[in-house]
Recover the amino acids of this structure.
């Protein structure tokens, strides 16, 4: 009975903010789901004299989504670049980081760890990958220091010993005991640069200009590129469809011509025996000529669209004309 | 933290034995947030045992005079496990795990059968409230003692199961030599979320008979097990884990014994530490309790002929060093012992054919492992075993085991 009560209370509490079930926790995290989080914490990962941030800062959720959503990364050894964040991650991070920046003090950063299904990543070990980061506004620029990027998300790791750690201002050389993470770099973008700190280039430290126009342009370009790709795909589909239709028409015409040839031959061989039959081709002649015209026009269209070569065009044209 | 495949063994062990969310190794399907994955391993060890003759005047159930070579599984059978995960809904993550544990060999007979142990069948509900685990999985009491012990991924003692004709297709690790086997049991367990490095887990378990030379078979309440643990880091990337776990259960004699005994209570407490410093890892654990047994918990050796609870205690100390070549080579040494007190009824047995009650079981083990790849592992182990009885007699055995694992 005690057990049933306990389970009922726990499960009922899943939707109860008091138990932090279905809703995001409000304190001390901006957002939390198990070991994923967005929170405000003291500046970290650098020397003791870290300059103060421009906090609190008001960056809208949309702007943060646009900025983060415009970042593509290229992993070493992989052909295509991939988005750094998924759509679902952006939805959560946009709101939570915006809220965090608006409440953070000058000596605080917003940090996050989030897991998502990154299609480029699915192959082995897990279907989910983590991104961890540290976000702050300094000198009017939004800084994003990445800790882990698309690292396998394993549920049962002892997070108390191996927590999901956001990026650090201080460069940390990879431990010889640990396998080095996959190397990556961001794809250059207007308004986006990487930091060089203490003479060390930091590809993991992104500095972003929070001018909304820049990111609207970037997004527009991205949208345009997507639409162009979509249009090209649509056009290719249409060409394929037209080509299929034309092939069907060609086949139909060829069959009809063959039938006409056969009829004419029959008429030539027995003109007196079947006068009534002579009349039939005569009455069909205008229709046949129309079809021949249509065939020639179709052929011309195929040639003008570059779907057939001049040689093919001439050969087919001659074939149609020979059939008259 | 850069999690790597190097720690796949730790992850696998945790996933297999310590019911958390299912551990996914290879994703073989899934859509719309569902995933279906498998993990597992196949291992085989060549083992050789050289044992003394049995001493006289002792209870001989706790030694064997068999020498011999076998090809069989190490402490772990082979494993094929499936994990199913549901998409996150209403802040809840649901997962299930079914683990098949088949053995490569059982008795040393050409036509002996095989053994399939269904050790894991459970589902978990995870949320910001913590985790509920429901089903069959490793028990809490002495679970961490087992998981942090090096022969988990080795062979350990062969002893009396060298040629055993029953279901033992495996060796016995350090069971009986520093802890008692917690086994996989039906349970409903709640684990809190991380609270400043602390976690508390409490579970209700399918009760067991409490047996030995007398047996209490009637169980009216579930067994209760709990664990409090702390984990954190210190210094420059050093890690520390502390834990304490305990167990309580009652059982009644049906009918009451002639001496008036009508019920028994089994209890146990345990604690341990695991500290990692660079390539070194030091771990130690200890336990004590009544009606626990000598090697297996509760249903064997727990009570004397008068129905009195026997007292057992033990400890393990272990040191490992992992070379900085991405964790490919690891050396370890461990020592552990179980000590059993003698009851009044046991003292009387010294003068009968039953013989003297076992007093201690100790084992010293040296181990070296080499990860050829993250999925292929070689292992060598040398163990020295010593048993002592309450009449002062002893028995020794030496064991050499060489094995390999393929893990996925």
């Amino acid at each position: 009975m005690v057990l049933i009560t306990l389970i009922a209370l726990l499960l009922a509490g899943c939707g109860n903010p008091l138990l932090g079930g279905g809703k995001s926790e409000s304190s001390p995290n901006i957002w939390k789901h198990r070991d994923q989080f967005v929170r405000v914490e003291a500046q970290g990962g650098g020397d003791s004299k870290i300059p103060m941030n421009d906090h609190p800062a008001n960056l809208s959720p949309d702007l943060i989504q646009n900025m983060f959503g415009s970042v593509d990364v290229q992993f070493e050894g992989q052909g295509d670049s991939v988005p750094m964040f998924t759509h679902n991650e952006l939805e959560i991070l946009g709101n939570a980081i915006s809220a965090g920046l608006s409440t953070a003090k000058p000596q605080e950063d917003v940090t996050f760890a989030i897991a998502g299904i990154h299609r480029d990543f699915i192959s082995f070990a897990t279907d989910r990958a983590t991104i961890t980061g540290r976000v702050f506004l300094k000198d009017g620029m939004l800084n994003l220091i990445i800790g882990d990027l698309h690292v396998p998300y394993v549920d049962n790791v002892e997070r108390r010993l191996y927590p999901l750690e956001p990026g650090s201002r201080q460069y940390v050389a990879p431990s010889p005991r640990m396998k080095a993470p996959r190397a990556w770099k961001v794809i250059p973008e207007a308004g986006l640069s990487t930091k060089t700190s203490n003479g060390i280039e930091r590809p993991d430290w992104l500095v972003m200009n929070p001018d909304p126009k820049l990111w609207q342009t970037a997004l527009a370009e991205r949208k345009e590129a997507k639409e162009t790709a979509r249009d090209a795909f649509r056009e290719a589909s249409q060409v394929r469809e037209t080509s299929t239709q034309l092939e069907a028409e060609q086949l139909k015409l060829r069959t009809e011509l063959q039938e006409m040839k056969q009829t004419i031959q029959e008429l030539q061989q027995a003109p007196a025996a079947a006068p009534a039959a002579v009349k039939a081709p005569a009455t069909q002649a205008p229709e046949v000529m129309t079809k021949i015209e249509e065939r020639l026009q179709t052929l011309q269209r195929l040639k003008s669209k570059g779907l057939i070569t001049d040689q093919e065009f001439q050969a087919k044209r001659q074939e149609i004309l020979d059939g008259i | 933290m850069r999690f790597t495949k190097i720690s796949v063994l730790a992850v696998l062990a945790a996933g297999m034995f310590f019911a958390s969310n299912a551990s996914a190794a290879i994703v073989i399907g899934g859509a719309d947030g569902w995933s279906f994955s498998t993990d597992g391993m196949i291992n085989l060890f060549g083992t050789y045992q050289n044992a003394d003759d049995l001493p006289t005047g002792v209870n001989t159930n706790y030694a064997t005079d068999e020498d011999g070579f076998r090809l069989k599984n190490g402490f772990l059978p082979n494993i094929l496990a499936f994990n199913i995960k549901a998409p996150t809904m209403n802040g809840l993550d649901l997962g299930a795990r079914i683990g098949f544990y088949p053995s490569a060999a059982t008795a040393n007979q050409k036509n002996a059968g095989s053994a399939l142990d269904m050790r894991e069948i459970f589902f978990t509900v995870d949320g910001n409230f913590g985790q509920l685990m429901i089903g069959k999985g490793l028990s809490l009491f002495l679970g961490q003692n087992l998981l942090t012990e090096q022969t988990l991924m080795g062979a350990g003692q062969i002893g009396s199961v060298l040629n055993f004709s029953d279901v033992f297709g495996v060796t016995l690790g350090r069971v009986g030599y520093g802890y008692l086997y917690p086994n996989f049991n039906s349970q409903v367990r709640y684990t809190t979320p991380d609270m400043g490095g602390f976690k508390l887990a409490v579970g209700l378990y399918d009760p067991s008979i409490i047996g030995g030379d007398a047996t209490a078979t009637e169980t009216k309440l579930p067994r209760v097990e709990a664990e409090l643990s702390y984990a954190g880091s210190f210094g420059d990337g050093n890690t520390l884990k502390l834990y304490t776990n305990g167990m309580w259960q009652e059982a009644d004699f049906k009918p009451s014994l002639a001496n008036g005994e009508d019920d028994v209570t089994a209890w146990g407490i345990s604690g341990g530490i695991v500290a990692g410093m660079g390539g070194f890892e030091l771990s130690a654990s200890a336990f004590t309790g009544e009606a626990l047994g000598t090697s297996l918990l509760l249903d064997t050796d727990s009570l004397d002929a008068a129905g009195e609870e026997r007292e057992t205690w033990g400890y393990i100390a272990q040191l490992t060093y992992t070379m900085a070549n991405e964790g490919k080579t690891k050396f370890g040494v461990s020592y552990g012992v179980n000590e059993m007190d003698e009851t009044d009824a046991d003292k009387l047995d010294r003068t009968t054919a039953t013989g003297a009650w076992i007093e201690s079981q100790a084992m010293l083990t040296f181990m070296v492992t080499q990860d050829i790849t993250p999925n292929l592992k070689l292992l060598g182990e040398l163990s020295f075993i010593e048993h002592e009885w309450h009449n002062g007699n002893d028995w020794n055995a030496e064991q050499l085991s060489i094995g390999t694992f393929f893990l996925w």
Q: What stands out?
A: The radius of gyration of chain A is 34 Å. Confidence is low (pLDDT under 50) at residues 9-27, 273-283 of chain A. Residues 243 and 307 of chain A are 8 Å apart (CA to CA).
